[in-house]
Amino acid sequence: MTDLTRASDSWLTSLPHQQWLHDQGQTLLDFAKAARVPFGFAQLDRFGRRADTAPADTITTARMVHSFSLAHIQGLPGCAPLIDHGLAALAGPLRDTEHGGWFASPHAQDGNTRKAAYLHAFVALAASSAAVAGRGGSAELLGDAVAILEDRFWAEDEGALRESFARDWSDCEAYRGANSNMHGTETFLALADVLDEDLWLDRALRMAERVIHQHAADADFLPIEHFDAHWRPLPDYNRDNPADGFRPFGKTPGHGFEWARLLLHLEAARQQRGLPSPEWLLGDARQLFASACQFGWNVDGSPGIVYTLDWDNRPVVRERLHWTLAEASAAAAALLQRTGEPMYEVWYQRFWDYIDLHMIDRQYGSWHHELDHDNLPSETIWPGKPDLYHAYQATLLPRLPLAISLASALKLRC
Fold first, then answer.
1. Which terminus of the chain has fewer Cβ atoms in its 10 Å neighbourhood, N or C?
2. Contact status, residue 392 vs residue 28, Cβ threshold 8 Å
3. Catalytic pick from 215, 368, 369, 390?
4. What pLDDT is recorded for position 53?
5. Is 390 one of the catalytic residues?
6. Shortest CA distance to 242 belongs to which of 180, 185, 175, 319?
7. Which GO biological-process labels does this protein carry (predicted)?
8. Which secondary structure element, helix H or strand E, spans residue 21, and what is its range?
9. Backbone torsions φ then ψ of 69, nearest 5 degrees
10. Predicted confidence band at 23 (pLDDT cuts at 50, 70, 90)?
11. What number of CA atoms fall less than 13 Å from residue 411's CA on the CB side?
12. Helix (H) or strand (E) holding 396
């Protein structure tokens, strides 16, 4: 953090604010513990309940393992058995023992046998965090997940991740997604720490350069989400299904915030290891944040950040999603740490004020995952409250340095 930030009345250096973040994180963890089911973790409804027959899914399970690993590293009780439960699910019913990799659900009971980069990035992230937490079986799981990422998903000639394959690793999807490569960047930052290998930072830089420095710069510094196999933008992708939860039509301001933060982590990590760090990492992070604020915040007459925009930067899906606000606050904190500039303090406080007033559900717990245009609870895109990962990380990132991935930073701090 710069001297300017230290000298100001920043929430980042406020002990009461840090305590508030800690307490908020604890309530999120307590709510999420109810998601445990026999084959991993399942999604919770808005009341924190799950049906007795609620199925586990791999993304939820991986995110829970990651989040509970972060909590365990801090010394928060009750998390170790949940980590081990999730690791057992990832090593067992969620895994494809015949062809390798992971299904979206136990034994592919949902009928989906495709292997997706997005999902595998989260499995590797979960394994890396569990390894830092010292949990048994995590090192083996991490080795397997890394091998799959390298052998199947990483395209050296593209400098990016391929999107998905059939169960037997045939039928490579003729689509490239910014979302999977964004979470691949997050995972590669963690792998660089846990494996102590610069290679992952070089790969993360190549992904960021392609998706952001080459393409987002041509779209008002809002990430282009969808590409064909040759990395040509697909502007009409999902026009008939604009509110898709993973591949929405148009531009997504929330991903602008998320990419901005990741670029700063990547810059700091490369500098810490003595690797070349291009100036555009900071410059593009500033631009991404500015565009996401300009085109996403309060643009339809109501407070909050809209989910998507069209190619003229007009709102399309106006729901406010909790992960967008989580990433906005984390990006503001990262830019404040990096630059010390007061405007990022203003945005940081503004985002948390909105979260406190609108997103935190003080009646049933956790955060509303979706609000409508009038900031009332909605479930048109994300039913229930399945996601611990985004909100919990938002309570941790402002308290940690940029240079080290979350699990490693918490380990050093504790």
1. C
2. yes
3. 390
4. 83
5. yes
6. 319
7. carbohydrate metabolic process
8. helix 15-32
9. -65, -45
10. very high
11. 16
12. helix 389-396
40 Rama sector, left if φ>0, alpha if ψ -120 to 50, beta otherwise:
left
Residue 311's φ and ψ, nearest 5 degrees, are -75, -10
Q: What is the pLDDT of residues 309-354, one digit of tens each?
A: 999 999 999 999 999 999 999 999 999 999 999 999 999 999 999 9
**Percentage of the chain exceeding pLDDT 70:** 98
pLDDT band for 8, please (50, 70, 90 cuts). Answer: low
Report the domain count for the chain. 1
CA distance 328 to 354: 11
Q: Is the pLDDT of residue 1 over 50?
A: no
Structure tokens at 85: 């439960």
What single-letter DSSP state applies at residue 54?
Answer: P
**CA–CA distances in Å: residue 267 to residues 74, 189, 283, 287, 404:** 26, 11, 11, 15, 11
Query: Mean pLDDT, the chain, as a whole number?
Result: 96
The string of DSSP letters for 213-254 reads IIIGGGTTTS---EE-TTS-B-TTTTTTSTT-SSS-SSB-HH
Point out the catalytic residue in the list 255, 322, 358, 369: 255
> Quick one: CA torsion of 143, 147, 149, 150, rounded to 10 degrees?
130
- Regarding pTM above 0.85, the answer is yes
Which residue, among 135, 127, 149, has the nearest Cα to 200 in the 3D structure? 149
* CA-based nearest residue to 40, from 107, 93, 4: 93
Query: How many C-alpha atoms does 141 have within 13 Å on its Cβ side?
Result: 33
Alpha carbon distance 341, 178 (integer Å): 29
**Is 369 a residue of the active site?**
no
Least confident of 39-53, 65-79, 247-261: 39-53
Domain housing 43: 3-413
- Residue 105 burial (CB < 10 Å; 0-12/13-18/19+)? buried
Which pLDDT tens digit goes with each residue over 191-203? 999 999 999 999 9
